[in-house]
Amino acid sequence: MAVAGLAIVGIAIAAIPPPPANQDLGIYDTVCGEFAEEDCRACHSSGVPDAHHMLVQNEGYECTDCHPVQTDPDGDTGVEVIRDCVVCHESSPHHGAQEAVDGHCSHCHGSFVDDYDDGHMIPAYNPSLITPDTSFRALDNATDKKWGGCEACHEPDNKAVPAIYSNPDTHHNLGNLSLECDRCHGNSDENLLNIRKCEECHGVKSLHNIQYDYASTNDQPGYGHVGDNWDCTGCHAWYVAYNDAPQTGPIIPGITQVSPARIMAGEETVVNVSGTNFQTTVGGINYTSDVVIDTGEETITLSPDSITDSEIMVTVPALDSGRYGLYVVKSEMRSKLVTITVAPPVTFDSSIIVGDNVVISGAGFGEYDSSYNEYLGVIIEPGTAADVVDCTIDSWSDTRIVVNCPDARIGDLTTVNALYGKLSKQVSPQICAPPEPVTPRIV
Ligand code: HEC
Ligand code: HEC
Ligand code: HEC
Ligand code: HEC
Ligand code: HEC
Ligand code: HEC
Ligand code: HEC
Ligand code: HEC
User: Fold this and answer.
1) What is the rounded CA–CA span in Å between residue 241 and residue 229?
2) Fewest CB atoms less than 10 Å from the CB: which of 79, 161, 162, 212?
3) pLDDT score for 98
4) Candidates 136, 198, 337: which one to mutate for ligand 7, based on the most atoms within 8 Å of Cβ?
């Protein structure tokens, strides 16, 4: 049930040296329909329930639109909480976004790709023998090993879970985007597979900065583009390049997970971001990262409270409820974009005994229905005895919950498990209103 602390897939395979390439950076090389729940959660690790529950307030959704009510043979009702994203989201919800239509793929994919209009360098000379091919330039007949192009390492693997798709398949399954052939191809048959077109998104600037865990792999083959000379020759065939690949610098940072799973409006929150390449030293220069929150209207750059190569702790200032983007940036090299959702505030003012009832006051308790009693409700625990006091919900509104609970005592701990959060407070004595002043009656 716990949504926090999910370990993210990606390190599922380890083919060193490739092909297929590992799947630790960027997006898993597959098509949308093959994504498993945890692949979606890799970027939506924070605030998935809240993102949906805010649609009730903001878009008029009903609880039952997403949680069908079921009746068991005894006539008791309950709901099923479906958690697998792709049960409800069947096709790519991302490539119709305005940034995708505008060709600004880096908005979500980060600096793993360049944008066609960001001014990055594309060589003006005709492709030479060292220019990588869109697929490959040389084949070693003895081993079937390809050299000199993307297919030296990026090849499909239908035994991986989820299956790794080929480069044409990953690029040809992006909905309407994939119908615009000239984004990626030249406009004549001979020119169809033209690396210069690929370089509009895969320029030297991004390609020479892709390496997983640079600090430990910068002299090893198979973990990216700029480790061992073997990597260089993967793209540049037999050409043994200089020691340094031009424009190699900060190395693109990667995010695997963001926690906590819930961030509340109006509160400062310490957020933990885990990933790779948050700090690197390349060519004697130390590079370090900041965390950026994208509100849609502006970006807020935050310096980490603490940082290692694989973990950042950062204090996110109080935000209004809503959905935000988060990425890590290191000398202008951006990780992919992940989402965080800030839930509406929940406050708990008091829990008071009134006769046989406990009256709970506060704000933001959200909605309740007995079908959800497995997930939502009130628990009253005595400070001394171990047993939870037996109570039933009498009424529930956004600001006031009444529980029938004859055995509750002052000092017991009341815990409200509400849609947007869980809060506890001790039951306190009723503070009575001062008596009405008595006006003497003159007879
Ligand atoms: C690489 C990270 C990443 C992965 C993986 C990912 N998402 Fe997203 N998703 C995003 C980002 C970022 C946004 C918001 C884009 C923005 O704010 O501009 C988003 C937005 C969405 C939206 C809202 C679209 C809209 O119209 O506003 C839905 C729905 C969604 N994702 C579902 C999914 C599902 C289902 C999966 C798994 C198949 C998934 N996501 C995998 C990053 C990701
Ligand atoms: C637009 C779809 C949608 C609507 C509408 C919706 N939910 Fe949910 N709800 C979800 C999804 C998806 C999850 C699972 C989230 C996860 O696993 O991270 C969920 C989870 C839950 C959970 C379990 C929380 C947990 O993590 O254990 C409860 C309780 C719940 N919803 C109650 C409600 C109630 C009450 C309403 C109406 C006020 C409601 N939901 C409306 C989609 C929705
Ligand atoms: C029970 C069905 C259901 C499940 C399961 C579900 N969603 Fe959704 N989700 C919806 C519906 C319905 C909407 C609203 C329509 C839309 O944007 O597609 C929605 C909207 C969203 C949004 C946009 C929210 C906004 O602010 O507009 C995101 C992001 C999202 N879902 C991500 C996910 C992710 C990630 C998972 C899995 C962890 C998931 N959903 C599981 C039904 C579901
Ligand atoms: C709103 C965020 C967003 C934008 C903008 C975006 N993508 Fe994606 N892209 C994703 C997410 C999330 C996935 C994985 C889930 C899916 O397919 O929806 C993905 C998957 C892919 C994949 C397959 C995965 C892989 O590693 O091969 C390719 C290729 C791709 N996108 C290309 C593009 C191109 C080209 C553009 C720009 C024209 C673009 N994307 C813009 C979010 C985005
Ligand atoms: C020498 C092997 C090799 C060659 C050749 C190669 N790559 Fe890679 N590439 C890798 C490895 C390894 C990774 C890191 C995979 C990971 O850990 O996620 C990677 C990652 C990437 C990424 C980051 C996103 C992702 O899916 O992981 C992009 C984009 C990329 N390569 C594009 C290309 C392009 C374009 C070409 C051809 C011009 C190419 N690569 C050739 C090995 C190679
Ligand atoms: C987002 C980028 C992208 C778009 C858009 C795109 N392609 Fe491709 N295409 C690729 C990639 C990457 C390859 C693999 C190149 C290679 O292996 O040499 C490819 C390969 C091909 C091939 C070689 C045969 C094969 O499938 O391996 C043909 C033919 C082709 N594309 C035609 C098209 C046509 C026609 C369109 C428009 C309907 C189109 N492509 C749209 C990226 C794209
Ligand atoms: C419009 C932008 C765009 C163009 C043009 C483009 N790609 Fe990509 N390519 C992407 C995106 C986005 C990804 C996904 C990166 C990630 O995993 O986050 C990608 C990923 C890749 C990868 C890494 C493996 C994978 O699937 O993630 C290879 C290899 C690749 N592209 C080859 C090519 C080749 C060859 C061409 C030219 C035929 C080409 N691309 C043209 C945007 C583009
Ligand atoms: C993923 C593919 C890829 C990998 C791996 C790669 N490069 Fe490159 N490199 C390129 C591309 C693309 C160019 C632009 C050359 C062109 O288009 O003609 C380039 C250009 C160069 C150039 C400039 C060539 C010139 O004469 O202008 C040098 C030098 C170079 N790379 C060295 C390296 C070294 C050293 C490594 C390994 C540490 C390396 N490259 C790894 C793709 C790659």
Assistant:
1) 8
2) 161
3) 95
4) 198
**C-alpha span between 392 and 13 (Å, rounded):** 50
* Cβ(378)–Cβ(413) below 8 Å: no
Q: Please tell me the number of the ligand nearest to residue 198's CA.
A: 7
**What CA–CA distance (Å, rounded) separates 170 from 279?**
30
Any atom of ligand 1 within 6 Å of the Cβ of 89 = yes
Cα separation, 211 vs 229, whole angstroms: 13
Which ligand 6 atom is nearest residue 180's CA? 5
Is the distance from the beta carbon of residue 419 to the nearest atom of ligand 3 less than 6 Å? Answer: no
Q: Which residue has the tokens 């879970």?
A: 161
Cβ of 389: how many Cβ atoms within 10 Å? 19
CA distance linking residue 28 with residue 201, whole number of Å? 18
State the ligand closest to the CA atom of 56: 2
Tell me what pLDDT residue 8 has: 40
Q: How confident is the model at residue 22 (pLDDT cuts 50, 70, 90)?
A: very high
Q: Structure tokens of 206?
A: 């991004």
Tell which one of 185, 194, 235 to mutate to probe ligand 6, the residue whose CB is within 8 A of the most ligand atoms: 185
- Alpha-carbon distance 78 to 375, whole Å? 10
What average pLDDT does the segment 350-377 reach?
A: 91
Name the closest-CA residue to atom 28, ligand 2: 375
Nearby residues of 269 by Cβ (< 8 Å), 6 or more positions away: 260, 263, 315, 316
**Cα–Cα dist 364/321, whole Å:** 12
Ligand 6 lined by 134 (C-beta under 6 Å): yes
Q: Residue 348 — pLDDT band, cuts 50, 70, 90?
A: very high
Per-residue pLDDT tens over the stretch 186-217 = 988 888 999 999 999 999 999 999 999 999 99
